[in-house]
Amino acid sequence: MELRPAPREGDLLATIATAFLWIVGLLALAFVVTVPLDAWQQFAFSAVVFAIALALRNRRSRLVVLVLMGLSLAMSARYIWWRLTQTLGVSSFVDLTLGFGLVAAELYAFMILILGYFQVAWPLNRKPVPLPEDRSLWPTVDVFIPTFNEPLSVVRNTVLAATVLDWPEDKLNIYLLDDGRREEFREFCEAVGVHYLTRTNNSHAKAGNINAALKKTSGEFVAIFDCDHMPARSFLQVSMGWLVRDPRMAVVQTPHYFFSPDPFERNLGTFGKVPNEGELFYGLLQDGNDAWNATFFCGSCAVIRRGPLEEVGGVAVETVTEDAHTALRLHRAGYRSAYIPIPQAAGLATESLSAHVGQRIRWARGMAQIFRVDNPMLGKGLSLVQRLCYTNAMMHFFYGLPRIIFLTAPLAFLFFGAHVIHASALMILAYALPHILQASLTNLRVQGKHRHLLWNEVYETTLAWYILRPTLMAVINPKLGKFNVTAKGGLVERSYFDAQIAKPYLFLLVLNLAGVAAGAIRLLASDSSGEIQTIWLNLGWTLYNVLMLGATIATSSEERQIRRAHRVPLQMPAVLHLADGRALPCKTLDFSSGGMALQLDEPRPVEPGSAVEIELMNRGRSQHLPAVVRQDRDERGLSIEFGAMSLEQERWLVASTFARADLWVSLWGRHDRDSLLGSLGGVLKASARGFQRLGRHIVSSGRQGFRAQPRGDSA
């Protein structure tokens, strides 16, 4: 029989003291949440709490962040308690039904707020650990690059970047997994020196493609990249240290960074100014997950230990978000995961809003499928904190219905006089305003560099209608739906208004504008001061919804994008060699796979159309690449277009640019901290732009007899 040491007296006292503090804290919170106050007392109490938060918010301490979260949750809990105990009227069936619908949406939002705070309470910010100095101890790695219908122009730079990974050549094998079974891809792989794998069917899409490759390969670890995600040469050295050190570590994930604007950024003009939709996840949430050993595998830019992956049956095929489901299975099996918040690969964002919506529909459906078939709150193998992190990720995608409810709730009163909240306008403001302001102030501190206030509302409003049905249907029948590949590398050849994708929001906009008109009529007809206050409250809510819908409609106005090769800012020394033998020292300003912008050290005229060579340095060596001068910008600035290159020259170009170890780190997460007024001003401009573009579309359609307009995107 194993003898265990008796607990020390100090440990026992510490446990008792901790339990006592928790009990006292919970009792105090219960008192703060439930004590009844009239409107002015509630305003006074909220003002004191808000003043404390304002005084603390800029102090550089993680403890301050936890205090802000606690104050926010206290005010939000007061609001929810008040809503549940004081405002649910039963005067009519309509009031009861609509009122319970609104409070259910608010309870959902409150739950997401709690889980979100918990998830990011103490981000780990894990650093890479060094590999053994003896390179013979480094493990073997198979690099998988799955592809289906993407053009070779998108795939080739990813393959070339993989071939320059800093890893012993005899311990690295690169595989292009072509589910499109294309001969030109096979020939390219033979020419560049990587393995080409295919299969006779496309069963289970990307997951099936990877599982088929697992049976034909044998590396100890598998690194996976989407076919447009070009790895930096340092990827394996940054990510493999933890896997070598910890035999129970099954997966290491790094961020997904996109060097091209997504449709929101392009259509709203926010690229480089406002964090995109995914930056909160990779900039903060994954870091928070890592503290709880709940890092998700995200399908690309990750390394997985082969043994645990095969132990859980390979990549999960039961849902269309095979990556998160695979991570869940690895965690259930007792393996650990890690997140290193250093971008070590970069790829292309979706080009059109319709493609972006399709991708998010797949994510939402897949997370709802996991919630239905492998619910993290049920089953064995997960700690409580892991269950909460996974639950938050899955519940997030159910925001479609609550968002639609918030967009339509005030219309019940403006159209029908229905009271969805049975309280005076003053009491509603006294309880709701502190809840909203305190949460906004806390999120400014917690998320400020990774997500800007109000823009999140625009993103979710745009997607809400489209993810509503897939998530609900996936819960009812998780087998419905299929995997859809997100197209990359397409073009938007002309600017156009996508009325098809905007249709639900045009309908909601008309409803809300009608609500504004109905509210104005009620104001003119009402002679009760209490009624007038309620009208103004609902009118203010409706006007806010109109603002959000205007910005949402702006996202539906596709901006022209005809550049296949997106420019990436990069300054590095170079030499421009002219045909007459002159060598002009210069530096690069930006680059793409098709060309570069240069700045000469000294002003020299260079004739457009001149054949030149650009000399690039990479790790102490140089290479000359053929090019043609396309534009003489000024006395020192010019643009060049690359000429026909050999595969080795292409490889050198990729190694010198896309695969640089420092490039994506220097560009990622460089946004300024958010401010409420800054976000409000930006969304107001976006909303005005949306109404302007909608007006132009209506006039244009009227002139053409409202004939259907073809979409401007092409692949």
UniProtKB/TrEMBL annotation:
Its EC number is 2.4.1.12. It comes from the Bacteria. It is a multi-pass membrane protein. Pathway: Glycan metabolism; bacterial cellulose biosynthesis. Residues 143-312 form the Glycosyltransferase 2-like domain. One of its GO terms (molecular function) is cellulose synthase (UDP-forming) activity. One of its GO terms (biological process) is UDP-alpha-D-glucose metabolic process. NCBIfam families: CelA, PRK11498.1. This is Cellulose synthase catalytic subunit [UDP-forming].
